[in-house]
Design goal:
Radius of gyration: 23 Å
Largest sheet: 8 strands, mixed
Helix content: under 10%
Number of strands: 29
Strand content: 35-45%
Number of domains: 2
Structural class: mainly beta
Number of helices: 5
């Protein structure tokens, strides 16, 4: 076995995948989905291949016509801004066009930060700069919507500035946020002729002037269905959010313990956590199994001997996003641990699925139930934990020989076969007794393995 001490650790701990903590308060549904999206794109690209896709949602359903800023009142598609607090506001879209035909289009960003490359051909169009210490500090995420409803509202909180501008002939607005994560800017661009809206999420190393150049460089060109960029329907989303608001769904929670078995709903494999350990170093682990050659280890978390290093974690007093912002009140020295989960996987002989693969990229969570019918995860919601990476950075049963392959967390078994494998996570020691493994692919069906309780 090639052990980790055979490689230089300063080459392994290269970049940190931070997460976004923007608790937009006006629509928990919208913000939970948006947070999930931005977590997914700022984390390892392996997370794209989970068997569920987080959809970007929009915010409040009812259109507010309180005193507001209106953009280009003579246009068929208008933007209105209404301040709802010192740091919050609603960006509402209205249209008078009843018969818009949404022809397929290809979204192309003609201006991006220097060194940007495409992260993946799946999900939202996302770009990043490989040389960034924080993987998404120059990151950009482009989402396309079709305005197929009379009105729609995007609500935002923790907002520190807002600027309207002309984006190459299109009405646009740039918003910046007091965010504990990497993404701290949103831009919206309205394409009058085609009836499309483009939303752009941008990293904190991008200046406001550069953000406006990025927004102004977006083009929409006619495309075939196969080449077109996916466009979300605001009408369908509006209906979905209204139904959720009227009757929040009852959560279905299942708590599992170590040695309990569950069935992965996507492939029929039986999964059992057999053992959970916490290590102070990574010397006994095989370097070949660290994802993306160790690039997903938190920056500066490991010394040249493979020991995990303590760090000063910010203590954040959480604001409400309307009249107060998140404020750092101090720091605490926190020791990191390698959480090492031994997982037994069986493909039953009577498995009704055939030609199956299992995605073993299970996230860590500190779950709680939200009254609106979804689960909160403190690792996302509490900005104090912004540097805690909740996805695995080590896996030793991949079907891929290259650990930088985006399919790396998939494994495949013959019927009747059982294997034992391991997942590794870098976590804060004081969180160990709260962490659970999230084994569900549905935001309203919670199945969690308690790891240390």
């Amino acid at each position: 076995m090639i052990c980790m001490q055979n490689k230089k650790f300063d080459q392994i701990s290269l970049e940190e995948f931070d997460s976004m903590n923007m608790d937009h308060t006006f629509s928990d549904n919208y913000n939970r989905k948006k947070q999930n999206l931005l977590h997914a794109v700022s984390e390892s690209e392996h997370n794209r291949h989970r068997n569920h896709l987080y959809r970007v949602a929009a915010a409040i359903v009812a259109l507010s016509l309180l005193p507001a800023t209106a953009y280009a009142a003579d246009r068929l598609l208008q933007m209105h801004y209404n301040s709802t607090g010192t740091y919050s506001g609603d960006l509402s879209l209205t249209t008078t066009s009843k018969d818009t035909v949404f022809s397929p289009v290809k979204l192309t960003p003609t201006y991006l930060p220097d060194g940007s490359i495409a992260a993946s051909d799946r999900g939202p169009d996302k770009y990043y700069v490989p040389s960034d210490t924080e993987s998404s500090s120059h990151g950009t995420v482009f989402s396309l919507y079709k305005m197929d409803t009379d009105d729609f509202t995007f609500s935002h909180s923790y907002m520190t500035s807002r600027e309207e501008f002309n984006a190459n002939g299109n009405d646009a607005v740039l918003m910046t946020f007091d965010s504990s994560g990497v993404f701290d800017k949103d831009a919206y661009v309205v394409f009058q002729d085609s009836g499309y809206i483009v939303e752009i999420n941008m990293g904190n190393a991008i200046t406001n002037e550069e953000a406006k150049k990025i927004a102004s460089g977006v083009t929409l060109t006619p495309a075939t269905d196969s080449d077109a960029t996916f466009a979300g329907s605001l009408s369908e989303l509006k209906t979905e959010l209204a139904e959720d608001a009227a009757a929040p769904k009852a959560l279905q929670t299942t708590w599992l313990k170590v040695n309990d078995t569950w069935t992965d709903e996507t492939c029929g494999y039986q999964m059992t956590v057999k053992k959970v350990e916490a290590f102070d170093n990574i010397r006994s682990l095989n370097a070949d199994f660290f994802t993306d050659n160790g690039k997903n280890l938190p920056d500066g978390s490991i010394n040249d001997n493979g020991d995990l290093i303590s760090y000063n974690r910010a203590i954040i007093q959480v604001g409400n996003g309307t009249d107060s912002l998140n404020t750092q009140t101090g720091t605490a020295q926190i020791h990191r641990k390698l959480l090492y989960v031994t997982l037994e996987i069986t493909n039953p002989s009577d498995n009704p699925f055939s030609d199956t693969e299992s995605c073993v990229n299970y996230d860590l969570t500190i779950p709680s139930e939200n009254p609106d019918g979804y689960y909160n995860n403190a690792l996302f919601d509490n900005p104090t934990y912004k540097d805690v990476i909740n996805y695995p950075i080590y896996f030793d049963a991949s079907v891929c020989s290259d650990n930088s392959d985006h399919h790396y967390f998939f494994t495949s078994l013959e019927k009747g076969q059982t294997i034992t494998c391991h997942l590794g996570y870098i976590v804060d020691e004081d969180l160990l007794d709260q962490l659970c493994l999230n084994t569900s692919f549905d935001g309203q069906i919670g199945q969690f393995v308690t790891l240390y309780k």
